[in-house]
Amino acid sequence: MAVANEPGRLEDETAYKLILAGMDLFGQYGFKGTTTRMIAEAAGSNIGSIAYYFDNKTGLYLAIARHIARRMREVFGFQGDQSTPDTLDRGQALAQLEIIVRRMVHQFAEAPEARRWLMLVIREQANPTAAFDILYEETFERVHIHLTRLIAVVMDRSPDERRVIIEAHTVMGQIVFFLVARFPLLRRLGLEGEFPPEVVETAEQVVISHLHALAPR
């Protein structure tokens, strides 16, 4: 089938629709609460299509995890091995961190696609399954290690230090929270709907200021 110019779209239209429908339903009802019939109906397909493309419900669930992991790598710019050159200085590390932060804040604060990932990813954080291993090994770990290495340069410490690893985790948590807790922040700011550009820009500046504060005085 023809492929539209839509981010993350699979070559096969039916498989793509099953991925999206499953992502929404698994996120809303969990693995046990979601049936193959529910997914097929939401995708506008027949129930046998799940077995055809993914073998079974578990196969579809794991395929969704791989799809999310791939899309995260694409939108965050983590496609290959992310290495930190030994010659990187603090200013260069901060510059790279600023690019990453702006890209991630934009995705989590503004892009609708990330909201489709949200509930399934949160469920896997709370109660890990084999899908968590996919998300962790294919995306979370890569991003975390790269951020840790850059932050280690900023802090002039080893990337293996527990403090540095936790600092990287805190930075990621700050950014993700703009998606997880978007509605409380919108209400607190007296806003509805979407974050306006100036709020997203301020969020970027706040997180970046925290990164600069990590440098030794």
TrEMBL record:
PROSITE patterns: HTH_TETR_2. Signal peptide: none annotated. It holds the Pfam family TetR_N. Gene3D superfamilies: Homeodomain-like (1.10.10.60), Tetracycline Repressor, domain 2 (1.10.357.10). Residues 35-54 bind DNA. Keywords: DNA-binding. The keyword Metal-binding does not apply. Residues 12-72 form the HTH tetR-type domain. PANTHER family: HTH-TYPE TRANSCRIPTIONAL REGULATOR RUTR, REGULATORY PROTEIN TETR. This is CerR family C-terminal domain-containing protein. It comes from Marinobacter iranensis.
